[in-house]
User: What shape does this take?
Amino acid sequence: MLNMRHPLFRPFAITLAMLFAALAWQLWAVVQGNAKLPEDQRPVTGTQANYEVLLPFAPESYHQMRLQAIGRLVKVEKRSVFLKDVAREDAIALSRQYWVVGMRRWTDP
Amino acid sequence: MSMAIITRGQARVVKGTLGIVLFIVAWQVSVPLVGLGPYFYPGPADVLRAFEDLLAKGILPTYLRDSAGRYAAGVLIGATLGVVAALLIGLNHTASRIFAPTISFMFAIVEVAWIPIFVIWFGYGYTTILIALSYVVFFPVLYNTLLGVRSVPPVYVNAARALGASRWQLLSNVILPCALPSMITGFRVGAGFAFRGLVFAEMVAAKTGIGFLIFEGAANQETARTIVGMIIMGLAWLFIDNVYLKPVERATVERWGLVITAQARE
Assistant: This one.
């Protein structure tokens, strides 16, 4: 049985609470990601796709760096960032970011 | 008629909160009096806006996560090496004579002086920060553990030997328990130093992290972001110290009988 008066009970309980919160956050991110990027919008495993990534703000250098790490950043138009050659796993991971409001396929004209 | 009873602990929290509120109010009131723009003298409202902005843009959680990961890894590696080195030096006279002068020499060279060299050797990024943090934590843990190891009363060691204890039993049942409170104190001091080291290391060698946020905010004339970074550093340290370090110190010190708790006294 847990001894709630033990000095290490509080650190243990807080760590456990943080782990649960992180898990809940990840679950929420997965659900949100699936809504932002449904299966038919994702590239087949092993292939790549181009995406217009919609943000609720003008991207800063931080976002451009993050996006450059997963694809070729072609251009930025207001709150949209246009990426080329994004792998399936990277597209899914990006869709789970809460600061991404939407993603849609984009064809280079 | 009922009377509200406030415990001493609650009264301390109320007084502490009141102090912080008064400070924030005085800061906000001083903004129009000082009459400088937010670049020179941002008020609490500017800082709050910057905080919301960093949160909404996903910058703050990522920076905080990166800093926390680097900090945890650096402290863990530095503390482990510090304990191992202290046991080696403390229990072996030859090792002490060989390594003690070099370690004393290294102790005088602060991590700030090493970081440019680490950047040349390991480049910008994780490795450099990890080594710098481990270096910072290593010395307080080493010296405190050494103090603990050398403070073990010889009568304990002799008694254990007389009872037929092996070298391992002597270490695990006598020396380590006796040295543990000093070790924990060294760990706590080292963890505090590592926090300061983290800010500097991230300013120089990283493109993410709270230290980088502080540096980048000042460089981009977004002073409110710099202050957000400073406040986050302070709060993070309060959290680590109160939630982890103090309870661990209390548990070990009380466990080994150096402090008599109120409960034990009764």
In short: The mean pLDDT of chain B is 89. The two ends of chain B are 33 Å apart (CA to CA). DSSP finds eleven helices and no strands in chain B.
